[in-house]
């Protein structure tokens, strides 16, 4: 067995998270970034998805931030409106050929001493407020370099899906550093130390017409301005990740190289987790790539939910000679699985 799922999974459900306002309900608490804070607190930064409670069965509703007022406004459209061109699933709909989301996400902190039992903060840590955040904040990754935490997160608006950067020292005050990768580039993960004097990040550009959707790598002098973009871990035909690949967890430094846990989806949109080993002195070089997944959707909470057949990680923690992988299950729950570096390396 490559991973051991916690018998207490899912460890965080939507019911565990109070909504940010009384007229909304939480429909997802998932895809958390993970870090150790103040030496003994395991901290998760959850993506919390909310939607209005008063949605009727015969309509689609999209909550959208008005950045000028700071208020959430609702786009309501009847299902039989001829301007609705598609409703692919419960997460979104197309109106006048433009995609709208049925929920809006913010970032919320959960804290634990043992890595299994978490207390969720009663209010958001970071809520949408910028023009590039009008459809929400999603899928954070947390990288600690020296005494500063760098948080990459996906920002969604009518201008597209970008990656933005937050920095913090205390998880109370957050400094917005703005967009660091323009549309569409997501699944950005910053390495936990400089290599050759530079910051490095895994990225996931999304070509529309030509080219696969896979992991690239980039470098930066300051973690804000990025260049030297190169393809790195692309989908492989006929495998469990022949659809897309994307960075998941902050890379783990081992004697053998940088160990990256990444996600891959197949052509049927089944999301699994796998691993790749990168050169310690030049992360743009792949040493080895997993031949089999570390984990695939198997548990009921992974197979069924807001969007089933998904295991999707944004954070892993080394603790007591183990690796705790925190992951979103079916775009609804947060779960955790335990493994070791040696088990992960055995997939190569």
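-> sequence recovered:
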């Amino acid at each position: 067995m490559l991973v051991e799922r916690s018998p207490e999974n899912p460890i965080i459900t939507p019911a565990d998270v109070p909504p940010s306002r009384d007229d909304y309900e939480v429909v997802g608490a998932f895809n958390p970034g993970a870090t150790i804070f103040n030496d003994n607190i395991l901290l998760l930064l959850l993506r919390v998805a909310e939607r209005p409670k008063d949605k009727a069965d015969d309509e689609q509703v999209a909550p959208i931030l008005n950045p000028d007022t700071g208020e959430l406004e609702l786009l309501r459209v009847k299902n039989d409106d001829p301007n609705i061109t598609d409703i692919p699933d419960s997460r979104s709909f197309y109106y006048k050929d433009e995609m709208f989301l049925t929920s809006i996400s913010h970032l919320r902190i959960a804290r634990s001493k043992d890595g299994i039992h978490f207390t969720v903060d009663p209010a958001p840590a970071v809520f949408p407020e910028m023009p590039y955040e009008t459809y929400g904040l999603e899928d954070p990754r947390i990288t600690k370099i020296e005494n500063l935490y760098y948080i990459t997160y996906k920002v969604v608006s009518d201008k597209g899906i970008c990656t933005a950067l937050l920095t913090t020292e205390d998880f109370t005050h957050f400094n917005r550093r703005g967009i660091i990768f323009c549309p569409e580039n997501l699944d950005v993960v910053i390495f936990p130390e400089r290599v050759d004097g530079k910051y490095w990040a895994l990225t996931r550009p999304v070509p529309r017409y030509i080219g696969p959707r896979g992991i690239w790598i980039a470098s930066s002098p300051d973690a804000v301005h990025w260049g030297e973009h190169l393809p790195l871990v692309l989908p492989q035909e006929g495998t469990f990740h022949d659809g897309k690949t994307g960075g998941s967890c902050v890379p783990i430094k081992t004697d053998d190289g940088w160990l990256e846990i990444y996600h891959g989806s197949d052509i049927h949109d089944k999301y699994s987790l796998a691993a790749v080993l990168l050169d310690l002195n030049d992360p743009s070089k792949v040493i080895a790539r997993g031949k089999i997944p570390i984990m695939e959707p198997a548990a009921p909470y992974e197979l069924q939910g807001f969007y089933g057949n998904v295991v999707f990680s944004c954070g892993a923690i080394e603790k007591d000679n183990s690796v705790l992988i925190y992951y979103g299950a079916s775009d609804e729950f947060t779960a955790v699985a335990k493994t070791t570096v040696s088990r992960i390396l055995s997939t190569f």
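Residues 4-49+109-345 form a domain with the Tachylectin-2; Chain A fold (CATH 2.115.10.20).
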